[in-house]
Amino acid sequence: MSNKQLSQANSELKNFAHTASHDLKEPLRTIGAFTKLLKNKYGEGLDDKGIQYMDIIDTGVKRMTNLISSILEHSKFESKALALESVDLNILLQEQLESIELMIKEKNAIIDSNPLPIIFCDRTLIGMVLYNLINNGIKFNSKSTPTIRIASSNSHPDFYILSVRDNGIGISQKNKDKIFENYSRVAPTDEFEGSGIGLSTTLNAVKKHKGNIWVESEEEQGSCFYFSISKYLNNNLIPNHSD
Ligand code: ADP
To answer: Looking at domain 84-230, what is its CATH homologous superfamily?
Structure first.
């Protein structure tokens, strides 16, 4: 297959994922809505087991809705061209934290950050990267006070390096690369919800910024995710941080 055919097949596949996941949401909404109606209207006639079965359907519907949303987001970000602008990462971080305010409160999480730079990047994509890493740091965490620290380093000549450190469940040596693959989940799936899409979308977003993402972690010892963004995205002298 030629490169052109490959890229066409790839883009058709992305379109398919987008359309299929979009269409899947509709019947799912119907199942969810009618389960709720059934429970409201006939719930009193059901015994405990009946109510429990209804709740299981409800949880399944919610999980599948989240999964489909992740697939939709993924295909959207995959095909998006970079929209570069000057972005104050401190403001971008605040915006992301506001969007998970409820989760931060519920989980009693502490988030702190060193002053971050103003950089040239795609604000939607880098916002999504910060969101995914912080969200994961709180989610894959069994501590009574999940603590996330965001920092940046300007010591590399070609790349801004940002880090998101957590005190969560950690990642074993053998799973460190696997987690960046599509649909890969390594934490116990009955304990921690997820789709396994977030980190692969994150990897894709930083690659688009000519950067890379990697993790330092040990089981039970927390994790620190690092990602790099090229300092030269606004001209053609772009070094690559991947290899
Ligand atoms: P999701 O969060 O939807 O499961 P991700 O692609 O974001 O998908 O993450 C893939 C897997 O990597 C997760 O299911 C989890 O097992 C592991 N993981 C990601 N972030 C962390 C973290 N901060 N601490 C421990 N494990 C993590």
So the answer is: Histidine kinase-like ATPase, C-terminal domain (3.30.565.10)
